[in-house]
């Protein structure tokens, strides 16, 4: 049977590797992924064909993985986090849904939960994830989502918060939060490279965030109206009577 | 050092067990959790003290785990999914933040991504999770969040969608979606017991969902305006030009 695994490897540190992920990598004859992601799983790649390309060649990688599977080469294509959120599961299935290939999506630890775990329990309750990248989503729709999620008092997880080409989108998002009545003191967790080498954790508030420290590998979590900071933790109450 | 691990075990099937989760269970002398959750990790519990209670005794379990850790017993308290979303990380930290205990939150595969993986790529883009349990959240706030998330065209993941005491909350949520302009044909994935024994997967639309099949162990994922069904898959496009 022609097989293609779409594998979420989690944040990249080996602690979040799952049993099924490892089985699938071991069964694969070829592994396709963005170069740094393949480095995270180096220990499983001995003797396998590797195909890696740069950051913006996602679709090239998807097509290569599908082509390999169609040739009968059992193949894994890897995403960080969970492959089903801003990852490779979507484009692969869009491209391969009519192909005679057995496809398995292997879930992973998503980046927002990896980041959250390093500062305690910042999410805990109803939550929205918003990617601030406007490569494939209109800027106005992104900011509309920020505003509506703020009105609903969701915990907010910002993916791709800041890049060289989009230096001020997170500031613009925070401006919307202020317009919606958020206080300067609303807690914010800023976690770069969660659970992998070079991890850096910051607790702050909307009024005190250092935007210059934030890049594409950073997760920014803004609490809901009940979230608070306590020592090394950011906590969003679930609502129990304790 | 007095140690307490707050461990997300993922959906329960061993495929989503992570390396760090297993290390922490192995290091623990006592494990605390809801009875069925301990059964999922039975293979790691040999020779350990176990403390389990029923579904509604979460806080009793948290207090027991903290008390054990304070006595110097290395302890793990387990949640399914990720412990940081509707799980045990919040109440444990609320109760133990001032205690001299080393606490580690161990992230897991969250229930929405486990469910999503079984139907392809239904999430993929900006997403909101909403728990329909009103035990600790006012009903009106829950439905307000449903309405705002719908207006933002977020992919919606409904946790705790239906119980004996709340038979019609999901129908009420769907009614709000219709009021917000959702068509009958909007895709819906209904996944019960994802990636564990007894798994049952249904693809449907808002107009065709069989509510009677849905219970507290079911994840309901409603697509955004661009989501579609294709054979055994539900796909939300990421937005690539393919």
Keywords:
242 residues, 5-stranded mixed β-sheet, homodimer, alpha/beta
Task: Give an overview of the whole structure.
The structure is a homodimer of 242-residue chains. With 242 residues, chain A is α/β, with parallel strands linked by helices. The first copy, chain A, is built from seven helices and 13 strands. In chain A, strands 3-2-4-1-5 form a five-stranded parallel beta sheet, sandwiched between helices. In chain A, a hairpin with a 2-residue loop joins strand 12 and strand 13 (233-235). In chain A, helix 3 (58-70) crosses helix 4 and helix 6 packs parallel to helix 7 (169-179). The longest helix of chain A is centred in the N-terminal third of the chain and has 13 residues, at 58-70. Chain A is elongated. In chain A, 51% of the residues are buried. The model of chain A has no long low-confidence stretch (mean pLDDT 96). At the A-B interface, helix 1, helix 4, strand 5, helix 5 and strand 6 of A face helix 1, helix 4, strand 5, helix 5 and strand 6 of B. Strand 7 of chain A pairs antiparallel with strand 7 of chain B.
Kindly estimate the percentage of residues of chain A that lie in beta strands according to DSSP.
Answer: 25-35%
Q: What strand order characterises the main sheet of chain A?
A: 3-2-4-1-5
Q: What structural category do the secondary elements of chain A indicate?
A: alpha/beta
* Helical coverage of chain A, percent range: 25-40%
**Coarse morphology of chain A:** elongated
Number of strands of chain A: 13
Q: In angstroms, what separates the terminal alpha carbons of chain A?
A: 54 Å
Radius of gyration of chain A: 19 Å
Mean pLDDT of chain A: 96
By oligomeric state, this entry counts as: homodimer
Q: With helices defined by DSSP (H or I, 4 residues minimum), what is the helix count of chain A?
A: 7
Biggest sheet of chain A, in brief? Answer: 5 strands, parallel
Low-confidence parts of chain A lasting 5 or more residues at pLDDT below 50? none
Question: Which pair of protein chains has the largest interface, and what are the residue counts?
Answer: A-B, 75 and 74 residues
String of helices and strands of chain A: EHEHEHEHEHEEHEHEEEEE
